[in-house]
Structures are given as structure tokens and as C-alpha cells.
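User: quick one
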Amino acid sequence: MMDTPSILERAHREDYGRIVATLIRVLDGDFGAAEEVVQDAFAAALNQWPREGVPREPAGWLMRVARNKAVDLMRRSARLEARVGALEAAAPSVDGAEWQTFPDDSLRLLFTCCHPALSPEAQVALALRCLCGLTTEEIARAFLVSPATLAQRLVRAQRKIRTARIPYVIPEPEALAERTEGVLHTLYLVFSEGYAATDGPALLRVDLCEEALRLARLARSLLPGDAEVASLRALMLLHHSRRRARVAADGGLVLLDRQDRSLWDGAQRDEGLAELEAALAMGARGPYTVQAAIAALHAQAPRAEDTDWAQIAALYARLVVLTPGPVVALNHAAAVAMARGPEHGLSLVDDLEASGRLADYHLLPAARADLLRRLGRKDEAVSAYRRALATVRTAPERRFLEARLRELLAE
Amino acid sequence: MKYLLMIYENEKAAEALSEADVQRVMGEYGTFEQAIRQSGHFISGEELEPTAAATTVRIRDGKRLTTDGPFAETREQLGGFFLVEARDLDEAIGIASRIPSARSGSIEVRPVREFTMPQD
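Assistant: Done. Structure below.
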């Protein structure tokens, strides 16, 4: 039998977003008030459950208490009687387990949090706050901003939702595809920040990746017919399945070709592969699909030397067309180098460098250095590693580049 | 709820349009305005004279300062507006995206502040 705090912790993880989502609707889009009554309900549980026993349906109990507090709140502020009526009408569906079969509120909340009229940073913060129940402090820590900054970002976003009247609705069918794209981009941002932290001491922030996966699973269950949602979830699962092999015992980065593949999470990989299959069966051909397909080819190679680089290079060529950008172009060059030889990759990297678009990006000289090393052009490789070290930002990546440089100098 | 849809365009580019293009854009605006009148969204809307006709006024230390031109030099200038009634931001964005100039310039969608009487 679990104790109250751990049951509550689990309820917070699993049900917070859904309870808040429902309360926002019944409180007519008032995010702040909804969060307040839900937090009050959790506080009440912490107080009552040890004395009176844990209810059979913890989530249903929390929902009922939050709803009652919402009724009190509205009566106190003597707002529209009609709203109280609406709230009471919602009651039967929120009792016990039955309310869990009405996912529309979570979907509404997801689309509202990811509304394009909000800044991308605010979208990410709102989604983590409202759908995952992360505290302001937790989100601030994850994105390396002060809690005050993050709190202000949330307040501003909630104020804009209210004053510009961003609706708490699932978009109309004609706008759904465009809006879904925005939702996926937000989830992708959360995952990327966790997977390849842009700054700071740790390379991976597993917690952020896990929150992104939770949101992706939610989006997947809410939009089951959307091929891009399935693709994004596949992409996340396939990447995340490598998490244990990606960081060495000393916290350093381990590149794909040197990873201990026995550390990969087989169950998660299989789930990712199945999602990709489902996405392809639905006709997915977008950028997330292509990235997931690349990840799948890596995941399916028993050893690094078994990797199907020709197909990966072809997929990157496709990705360059779908989402043109210097970082994708650099990955394409690296794949071409593996498929056809370092000199072919190097000429693509040279073109990129000549374009000047990646002036501050440490991965460009790092990629150059690696190709030069493989071509036996040691002096040029050394100077490229030194240039990469001048712009690198995370500590593990710095250690990785330093180790490579030491190896090269020792040869 | 009321939204002001402010139409920003590059005046220089607009001035360089051929007579035929001007006629075409005018026709598109006519069709658009008629559509939002019929749907009940239209409250008002006007096209403005170019910023060359603009004058900026400020009072500082009780003294009136009048200067030529708009308050700020920007790449795009306010060229006109529609005031519309819309259910929410999504509906207002939907209307804004149908304004012909959305394809060449940009439309700023601003909610009009509502002053409500206290209910108590």
C-alpha cells in the first residue's frame, strides 16, 4: 500500500493536466483560477487522506473537490449564474473514472497552450505547467532562466490569452493541420532542449525528454489519425531509447559509432519502430517522418559498421529539401562522408563554410576536423578542433572535443 | 469582442504598382469588405493617405510640438485599418488573413479594450 504523498505525486504526474484542463473550461478560460483550485484540491488531499483514508478513485476525488472549490469561487465573486449552471452540468462526467473518457478538455488545453499568438518560449512553459504540472521552479531550472523570469513569462501568456481572447477550443477542421504543426513544434522544442541541451553542465535532461514524451503520447491519443503526430512520437522514442548509451560514466558525450548498443532500451526502440510503421501506413512523409526513419536505420543496425549510410544520406538529402537549414546540411554532409567517403563529405562542409551561415556553430569545425582526421590531414584537423573548442557551449561536448584533439596529437 | 486590424505595408512598393495592379487590389478590397459586411463582422474600415501626409503632435512641458511625418520610421507603414467584431482571436485572425494586403504586407490584430460595468 502506497502512502499518501506517493499516491498524490503519481496523481499529480498523471492527472494534473486533465483536471486543470477541465477546470479551465468550466471556469471559462481562466487559467489562473483553474490552477488555484486544483492546487487547493491537492492540498486538501494531503491533509485529509492520512486521516480519512485514500479514496478509491483519487483522481475523481481531486476533480470533485477542485470543482466544488471552483463553484465556491464563482459564487463568491458572484459572476454569471449561468456559469455555475454549466459547471454543475459538467459534474456527472467528472465523477469517478468516467470523466477520463472525455479527452476533449486536454486537447483544448494543448491547442491553447500552443497557440501561435503566444511566443514559442511561452508555449513551452505553459504546456509544461498546465499539461505536465511542472512547477514554475522546475521549468525555470530546465530552461536555465530565473524563476522570476519564467513566472513573468507565464503571467504574460495567461494575460494575453485573456485580453486577446485566445479561445479555449479545438481548432476548426480547416485550421487543424496548421495548428497541429504548431503543437508538434512545441513538443519538439521541449524534447530537443532535453536531448541536446544548448547550455549548461549536463548534456541530457532526461526529465524534459520524458515530459515531451508524455505530451507526445497525449497528443497521439487525442489525434490518433494524424500521421505527423505518430512520426514525432516515433522520433522521440527512437532517440530516447539511446539515452543510457549516449552519456559516459564521467558525463561525457558518446557518439553513435562508439555507443554500447547493449545499453539501448530495446522496448522503447520497438515502440518507436511500431509508431513509425503506423505513421508510414497513414501516409506520413513530413520532416518528422524522415528524421524518425533516419533514427530507425541507426536503431536497427546491430553494430555501427552495419549502418545503412547510403539510405541515411538519401533521407538527409530529402530533409534538406523539406527543412532547409545549415544544421541539416551539416548532417547531410556527415552522412555522405560515411556513405561515399570523407572527401565527398568535406566538399559539402567546405561549401557550407563558404556560405558563412554557420559562423558561430561549433559543430561545423568539429565536423571538418573529423573528416580531415579521417583523410589523414593531421595539421588541418588540429586547427579545426581548436576552432571548434573556441565556440563550444556545453561542458560534456567540450570534454569530447578535447579528448579527440588529445588522441590526434598523440598519434 | 472588437478587434482592430491594422494594415502595414511598404509605401514605396505600393506606390510603384502599375495602374492595372492598383485596380486589381482595389477590386479585391471591395470584394473583401462586402464579404465582411454581409457576415456581420464589419464595424468600420478606412484607407489612409501615405505617411507623407502625416503630422505628429506631442505636448511636452505644456508646450505643443508639431512635427512632420509619422512618430517612428519603420520599414512598413500603417496604410489602413478595419475595425471588426469577432467571437475570439481565432476568428479575428481568420478575417485578417483574408485582407488582400496580408499577402504583401502584414496585419496587426489588436483587441480593443473592453470596459465592463461592475456586476455587483
